[in-house]
Amino acid sequence: MTEMISNVNDLGNVLIRSDLNVPIINGNITDDYRIYKSMEILDKIMDNSKTITFSSHLGRPKKKGLDFTLEPVAKRMSEILNKKVNFIDELYGKKVKESLQSADYKINLIENLRFDEGEVNNSDEFAKNVTNPFDSYIFDAFGASHRNHSSVVSFGKYLNSYQGPLMGKEIEQLDKLLSNEKNGYVVLLGGAKISDKLNLIENLLPKVEHLLIGGGMCFTFYKSMGYEIGKSLLEDSFISEANKLLNSEHGHKIILPTDFGVTELIESQSREDLNIEHFNNKHIGIDIGPNTVSLFSDYLLSSKNIFWNGPMGIFEIDNFSKGTREITRIIAKSSAYTCIGGGDSVSAVNKFSNLKYFNHISTGGGASLEYLEGKKLPGVNIYNSLII
Ligand code: AMP
Fold first, then answer.
1. What is the largest CA-CA distance in the chain?
2. Is 143 designated active site?
3. Which atom of ligand 1 is nearest to the CA of 197?
4. Is the Cβ atom of 191 under 6 angstroms away from ligand 1?
């Protein structure tokens, strides 16, 4: 279903599903990469549509609340576009209809889709309600394309629907990495949790040259080998799974850090670098150490393709950010095809290097990883591409 169509002369009132799920701390957006990328579609459709209404999820709200409102995103969109973006604090109903009829507003943003449980439950009723006042639908939220949610798989049933340009770009770039598989690629994973990534590690292992694992999740692996890890991050219920992976057919491809930045109290922000063998029961591993940076560097620089997702330590704290900073710079300098998968890794690149030194910065963290696993994602290639 990826046949190209052209000459979409009149999209009418367009609803776009973007991924505007950005980090917001105390009402401030700390990384707006996804907003920038989501706005690129406007150049293409501005003259072909009557009104343009963006929609997105934000975080994982348990109920409607200020913490998860998209209002700050509408404000940021207005600043980026230098045009008023009208924020509608509803998902469907009177206010949405009135905004579409108002001559004052060309660009709108509706509230967080996850404020209605119909989104996550993939409700058809919800899809009908939201899509009701619109003429066409563009799905451009790569970062949500691995979810079986209403806006991903059901909204499109009720309108003329298209796959947006950002989706197309993401798929094209990740396909480059997959088709380069014969030249080999290295995946570098970091972040806090192993539980999110166990399946992924299992599925990726046969495909990659090496899988380098930093961040908090490597301590569950070390624990599974009987090491003292002190008070470092540990997911008890995954110890045996971690051990199984290390001893699996491709387990030798897992490369773990050999030394770490450690502290006894995160708040003190003090640090010393130690080999894993020297941990005592008070130590907390908060970053990879200098020997690991050179070890990882050797693997990264000898590969033709690199995919990176997740920080190497608590990079938000200056004294714990060294490993992530150095790894960012090493990948930036490499002549390999380099692809960064979403979220915190994009923030790290923004903080320690420059996005321009990387071949592809994906807007989707989880989605890009699942795509690399070779999974068919619910939201990928289900509509014709929009070509204007
Ligand atoms: P994730 O959402 O799983 O990608 O995790 C990202 C978070 O992992 C960041 O906020 C980091 O501060 C955190 N992180 C990375 N390494 C560690 C570590 N060694 N200990 C605690 N947190 C970590």
1. 68
2. no
3. 3
4. yes
Q: Could you tell me if 150 and 175 lie in one domain?
A: no
Q: Is residue 114 part of a domain?
A: yes
Ligand 1 centroid–CA 287 distance in Å is 9
Q: How far is CA 311 from CA 107, 116, 198, 216, in A?
A: 35, 32, 17, 9
Contact by Cβ (8 Å): 284, 231: yes
Taking the centre of ligand 1 as the mean of its atom positions, its distance from the CA of residue 118, in whole angstroms, is: 31
* pTM above threshold 0.85: yes
Same domain, 244 and 281: yes
Catalytic residue among 17, 34, 147, 322: 34
The CATH number of the domain where 33 resides is what? 3.40.50.1260
Q: Tens-digit pLDDT profile for the chain (388 aa)? A: 445 555 566 899 999 999 999 988 888 898 899 999 999 999 999 999 999 999 999 999 987 767 899 999 999 999 999 999 999 999 999 999 999 999 888 999 999 999 999 999 999 999 999 999 999 999 999 999 999 999 999 999 999 999 999 999 999 999 888 877 667 889 999 999 888 788 889 988 998 999 999 999 999 999 999 999 999 999 999 999 999 999 999 999 999 999 999 999 999 999 999 999 999 999 999 999 999 999 999 999 999 999 999 999 999 999 999 999 999 999 999 999 999 987 788 889 989 999 999 999 999 988 998 998 888 999 999 999 988 7
With 0-12 / 13-18 / 19 or more C-beta atoms within 10 angstroms meaning exposed / middle / buried, residue 95 is middle
Residue 385 within any structural domain of the chain: no
Examine the domain organization and report whether 250 and 338 are in the same domain.
yes
Task: Read off the amino acid at residue 372.
Answer: L
